[in-house]
Write a structure and sequence with these properties.
binds (2R,3S,4R,5S)-2-(hydroxymethyl)piperidine-3,4,5-triol; four-stranded antiparallel sheet; Tachylectin-2, Chain A
Length: about 375
């Protein structure tokens, strides 16, 4: 029997035309007309679907507006003076080697925290093998602040030079004139001559900014003030959570109180989160235990804190932003974002298989 290529097979319409003795050319014109009208009818619906208020699905693949999976681990968030959010993160590549920096710090931009535009690489690794930020360096947990006095955007990150393992224990600093960069690498150092691995920045009302960093072989967290230009640190520092072995710090503030969320120290493996509160970033800080509640709370829902962001338009509510690392295939690390609720003297984070910022608003009962 003669094989007929599927594309040569007569369409249902053409077959109908033949059986009904309608001109086949007329039928195929009708077919094109129906196809075009169908598309026109569907287009507004497709556009609506692309822009519908998205749901946050913790741990799921999250695509940017360009259709690529978002690649920004160890997140740092900036709400820039342009009113938009900027998500900075470690750009990872496939495999175990992807845990180190081979591309740089990526940046995404959004006005609703749900739909993200890829803005490229804010700080690329250097082609110069002698650079601190050469290909293969460890560049983790990038955080960016806007300095209102200088007008500059300043990025800080945990830096280990290529081939040095985790022995350098430094912070790196880069600066830009626009939120998405390009950032110009300035230098790396140990704040106050102290080791600095996992770190975060916190900008207080009035512009005073702080660096929190795991120091003393990660046994003790330190906090120090940034200089007014945010390019260095002041000399005073405080030792926090002494010998508690905490890392992955994230700091936020509500109604004059400061809150800390961090993790224990188990490499890429998830562990139990720690929460604390204080009336000054420099301490003293009072620990209140694990803020995660419910099933899998002992492993922070298989994630590690990276950032806590105020929930837009909902004073007293925050978004916990964590990483579910995949050290065997670094690029496949996932993002776990969950609503964070103040409660008593502390706060709590509960698991939601999926949730939306709008729903969070509807169900919100202010606790203080
Ligand atoms: C846990 C840290 O939080 C990560 O940023 C990374 O440094 C890994 N340890 C490396 O094992």
């Amino acid at each position: 029997m003669k094989q007929v290529h599927p594309s040569c097979m007569p369409s249902i319409l053409e077959r109908w035309a033949r059986s009904a003795r309608v001109d086949v050319r007329q039928a195929s014109r009708m077919k094109r007309l129906l196809a075009v009208t169908g598309l026109l009818l569907w287009m507004p619906l497709l556009a609506l679907a692309a822009d519908k208020p998205a749901t946050i699905v913790p741990g799921a693949l999250w695509h940017d507006r360009q259709g690529e999976v978002i690649n920004a681990h160890g997140a740092g968030m900036l709400k820039a003076p342009d009113g938009r959010y900027y998500w900075f993160g470690e750009h990872k590549i496939s495999g175990k080697g992807g845990n180190a920096a081979h591309v740089g710090v990526s940046v995404y931009q959004s006005s609703d925290l749900l739909h993200w535009n890829a803005r490229g690489i804010a700080l690329p690794v250097s082609k110069d093998p002698d650079s601190d930020i050469a290909d293969g360096a460890i560049i983790e947990r990038p955080k960016v602040l806007h300095n209102a006095a200088t007008g500059k955007y300043v990025m800080w990150f945990h830096l280990e030079r290529a081939g040095h393992g985790y022995k350098d224990a430094r912070v790196g600093v880069a600066v830009a004139d626009a939120p998405a960069g390009p950032y110009r690498y300035l230098r790396s150092f140990q704040p106050n001559g102290q080791q600095s691995r996992d770190m975060t920045l916190f900008q207080d009302d009035g512009g005073i900014a702080y660096l929190f960093y795991s120091s003393e072989r990660n046994a003790t967290m330190h906090v120090t003030r940034l200089t007014d230009d945010y390019l260095g640190t002041e000399q005073d520092y405080q030792r926090l959570f002494v010998d508690q072995w905490l890392e992955a710090p994230a700091i936020f503030k509500h109604a004059g109180r400061y809150y800390f969320m961090g993790s224990e120290c188990t490499g890429w493996k998830p562990n139990t989160a720690h929460g604390a509160a204080a009336t000054s970033p420099m301490g003293p800080w009072t620990e209140f235990g694990n803020p995660a509640q419910g099933d899998d709370a002992a492993l922070t829902f298989h994630s590690q804190s990276a950032y806590v962001l105020p929930m837009p338009g909902q004073p007293g509510r925050f978004i916990y932003m964590g990483d579910r690392w995949n050290p065997e295939n670094a690029i496949d690390g996932r993002y776990v974002w969950l609503p964070l609720q103040l409660e008593g003297d502390g706060f709590r984070v509960d698991w939601h298989a999926s949730w939306s910022l709008d729903e969070a608003q509807k169900t919100h009962v202010p606790s203080r």
